[in-house]
Amino acid sequence: MTTVLPSLREDAIATSAIGNVESSLDKLSPNQQLLPLTAVVNSHDHLEIGGCDVVELVQQYGSPLYILDEVSLRTGCQQYRDAFTKHYQGKAQVLYASKAWSCLAVCAIVGAEGLGIDVVSAGEILTALRSGVSPSLIYFHGNNKSVDELIYALESNCTIVVDNWHELKNLARLAEEQSIEASFAAPRIMLRLTPGIECHTHEYIQTGHIDSKFGFDPNEIETVFAFVADSKLNCIGIHAHIGSQIFELQPHQDIGGVMVEWFKLAGDKYGLKFTELNIGGGLGIRYVESDDPPSIEDWVKTVCAGVTDAFNHAGLALPKLLCEPGRSLVGATCVTAYTIGGSKTVPDIRTYITVDGGMSDNPRPITYQSKYRAVVANHMSAALTQTVTIAGKHCESGDILIKDIQMPETQAGDTLVVFGTGAYNYSMASNYNRLPKPAAVVVKGGESSLIIKRETREDLLRQDCLPERLRQ
C-alpha cells in the first residue's frame, strides 16, 4: 500500500485515493509542486519516485544521487506545448533552456515531446545534436561567443541569438567570407534586445533591466537594425528575457507591448521582415511551502494575451512565438538523495547534520542563499522533533544546504532527500575539494536507468599533467 504526501502535495492530490493519483498527474503544474509528480510513500515508509524506492536507489547507485522523474518532465513539456496551442492563434515553439541541466537524456526527453533547445555554448550544441534534436530547433545564446563557437553553430545550421556588437560584426564578416561559396546560406540570426523590464527576483538572475550584460540597449536599436539590413545576415526576429524564478505575471503581459514597437520599426524603416518573437522564460518553481508560482498554463496564457493584443493593436500579423523555459521544466522534476553522516550540537545555538555532498553538487545555497525543502526518505512518517541545519562536507563554513529545518531524529546511514534540484544543480556542479560529481538516474514505471555515471577518483586526474621535472 502506498500513500500520497499530504503536507507536501496540493490539496487536490492529498485528498485523492492513491489509485486515482496517476490519472490526476497531468492536471498538476509540475513547477507548483515541491515533489516530483509521482512521489508517494510506500508500505516501507520510504519515499518512492517513479515507482522506485529512493532508499533502494541509493543502495544500488550510491550517493549523492540525482533522481529525475520522467513523468514530471514530460508533463511539463506537454503543458507548455498544449497551452500555446490553446491560447495562441499563431505558430509557436517551446525551447528548453538547457543551461538548467544539459545532458543527453534530458535533451532527448524534451526533444521527443516536440521542444527545441536553447543552448549557450558549443558543448551544449553538441549535447543537443547528439540527443537527436534537429539543428533547426537549436537556438544559440551567450554574451561572449567565440569565433570558433560561431563557426560551429553556423556549420551545424543553428539559429544564433546575437547579443552584442562584437558578435554581430564577427558574424557579418563570416557571412561575407562564406558568401563566395555556391552552397552558402545566410546565417540565421535573432537579435537580443534589453526590454527594460525589472522583476522581483535575486539581482544576479535579473537579465531584462537596462543595466545588464545581456543584449543590445534600446538607444542603439536603430543603429543595429541599419547594420543588419546592410549585411548578408538573415535576421528572422528579436529576443528578450526578463529574468528567472519569477512569480509575477504582469511583466510577461507587458513584454509584448515593448517588443512589438521594435518589430514594427524594423519592418517600416529598415525593411527587416521579422517572423519570430522570443520572449524568453523565467517562470519560477516552488522550492519551499511559501513559494507560490503561477501555473505553466497561466504563464503561457498571459504571454499569449500580451503578444496578441500588442500585435493586433499595431496591425501586424502574429509572429511565430517562442519561449525558453528551463527551471520551470526541470527544476521540480528531480531530487538529490544523500547519506547522512554525523551530527554536532552547539548547546543553545544549533544542531548540524552532515551529508556526503554539498556545495559541489548544489552550489545554489552558497551562491544565491537559495532555500530548499528536505525529508528523511527512510522514515517518512516520523515526527518532526528537532530543528537542524543540513551541512555539506566541504571545507567551507558556508557549505550549508538548508538552515534551520524541522526534521525527525536521524542517525548515520539515513537517506536525506532534497527537493527541487533539477535546475542549476548538476549543471553548476564542481569538483571542489576534489569530490567526484554524482551519478544521475531517470525513473519511470518502477524502472531506473543511469543517465550520468558517477565520477571516480581517477576521473579527477584525467586532465592533470605532471611535467617530468616535477616527478619525484
Automatic annotation (TrEMBL):
It holds the Pfam family Orn_DAP_Arg_deC. It catalyses: meso-2,6-diaminopimelate + H(+) = L-lysine + CO2. Gene3D superfamilies: Alanine racemase, Lyase, Ornithine Decarboxylase, Chain A, domain 1. Its EC number is 4.1.1.20. It is an enzyme of class 4 (lyase). NCBIfam families: lysA. This is Diaminopimelate decarboxylase. The gene is lysA.
